[in-house]
Structure formats: structure tokens, C-alpha cells
Amino acid sequence: MDTFSVFDIVGPRMIGPSSSHTAGAAKIALMARRIIGRPIREVRFTLYGSFAETGRGHGTDKALVAGILGFAPDDSRIPNAYEYAKESGVLINMIMSDEPTRHPNTVKIEACDDNDRWTEVMGESIGGGNILITEIDHLAVELSGDYPTLIIRHHDEPGVIAEVSHVLAQMRVNIAFMRVFRHGRGEDAYMCIETDTEVTEGMQMIIVQLCHSIRQLIVV
Question: What is the mean predicted confidence (pLDDT) over 97-120?
Fold first, then answer.
């Protein structure tokens, strides 16, 4: 028997006519903003599939801009997102691509932060306001945003996963799901850890202090 969440039945709270094209788009960009973790100066959005074909009519472009500014999917400011971006000094570039992708509602977000560092995030709006982040800086990942999530960039070497898991266990943080992605053996890797409870700033500091192989820790 199939099971459904309340969002599958009544849909998410949002501004706009389509959960996939507006709520989902805003959530992808909001997740990208959290992954970047620093003030953003410039963003290039590349829309694919139905996002590119009908996105402007559904307000997908405005939802993406709103999300990268930190607005929630139900924020009343979404229709005026371009104006808010201009006021904030964030340069926006919107590109419509006819290149085929795995999912029709796909967007690539390339953002430059205040340290002139570019970060690339690929995301899919999979229906009902639900999303999936599929790439971070060309590394394949799987992030839904349904749970509090730690993204840990580290060097791929023995013992790192056990070290992080041990520290979380000592702090009584239960791991709901964990996935590890890497460019190759001995190269950069990401741990995506979804937890049952929030990981506070104090906990984050302890993790970084005790786990010496961590290069970057992001909470989304």
C-alpha cells in the first residue's frame, strides 16, 4: 500500500502557482545559499527542461532569486525578488538551456561569495515542493533537506567516518542517514549526515576541533 505525506495531498505553503516550479525552486536555491555559507555577490542560474521552457510563466526565476536571498517558499516578497536582489547588490544572471538532463525540473546554481570563491550546486524539484540536491562542485551527492544535515568536506582517508560518528555519538546526536561521496581514492570527499536533532553551533565547534581531517563543515 502506498503512503503519502500531508504535503503530497495538500501541497506546501508557497507563493506561486506551481509547487514544482516555485516552491521547489525556492527550496533548491535556499539550500544552495546554506551550502555556500557566506554572503553572495553574484549568481548564475541555468535552467533546464520544463524549468527553462515554462519557468518564467510559473515564476521559477523569481523563486530561485528569492531562495538565494534567503526567502522561504511562502515569503510574500518572492514576486519582487529581482528588486530585492538589486537592493542587496547581488548580480543575477538567468540562463535558459535546451541541454537534456536527468530530471525536467533541474537548475544549476553557480554563486560567487564575498571571498571571490565560486560554488556550484545542481538541484532537482521532484514534485510537491520536494527537492534533491544532486551535485556540489561537480561531486555527485544526494540531499533532500528533510532532516537537519551536516555536510563535511574532508580528505578521503581511513578512520575519518569512524571519527566523526564517534564524536556525534558522544554528543548523543543520532544519525538518521549517512552517505559518503568522493572524487576518487585519496581525494576530496563529502560526508552528508542527516540527523534526528539539530546540531548546535557549540556542537559544530567540538566536531571541528576533535576531527582533524575536516576541511569544511556546513549545516543545512
Answer: 93
Which residue type does 2 have?
Answer: D
Closest CA to 194 of 158, 130, 151, 159: 151
Q: Are 77 and 85 in contact (CB under 8 A)?
A: no
Domains located in the chain, CATH noted: 6-143 (3.30.1330.90), 149-219 (3.30.70.260)
Q: How far apart are CA 22 and CA 210, in angstroms?
A: 41
| In contact, 60 and 81? CB cutoff 8 Å | no
Helix 60-68 crosses helix 24-36 at what angle (to 10 degrees)? 30
In this structure, are residues 31 and 88 in contact, taking their beta carbons and an 8 Å threshold?
A: no
Q: What is the largest CA-CA distance in the chain?
A: 51
Torsion sign over Cα 149, 153, 154, 155: positive
CA distance 48 to 79: 21
Q: Which residues contact 25 (CB under 8 A, 6 or more apart)?
A: 51, 55, 60, 63, 64, 67, 105, 107, 125
Residue reference for cell 548564475: 44
pLDDT tens by residue, 2-49: 443 433 433 444 444 455 668 999 999 999 998 998 999 999 999 999
Overall size of the chain counted in residues: 220
